[in-house]
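Quick start: load a record and inspect it. Here is Endolytic peptidoglycan transglycosylase RlpA:
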Amino acid sequence: MRTQRWGCLALGAGLALAPALALGNTTTGDDHTQVGKASWYGREHAGHRTASGEAYDPEGLTAAHRTLPLGTVIEVSAHGQVVQVRVNDRGPFVKGRVLDLSAAAARVLGLDRTGTAVVNIRPTGAVCPANRACDAVPQLVAEAGSP
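Running the structure step on this input writes:
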């Protein structure tokens, strides 16, 4: 009986975690660090309004995330490269993805060649509202591990 109970608990825990694992979405700790699959917006979306109200600029360092507050600056790393982007839209709306990047940010990370990649996402703590001057302007950071 005890073995059955532990088996049921283990199965229940596995089923509870299955949706998060299927989405490729893991959040660790209070710093909201996330690991998951990212894709990028094509240039055909240029000028379309984002959730923040601004027009999508393929050359801007921006991203779409489902839950992070608009204006949040995040550090995104993949393929040994790191870039900071500002969340200005909602999405992605494709199952299994956690982030949509602008064309410029995708280029920095090499996603323009691969289409998608597993990325690490870390909020920097900075918030940069749309269409306002901001000290925390997103930027190319450097190769991962460089000072």
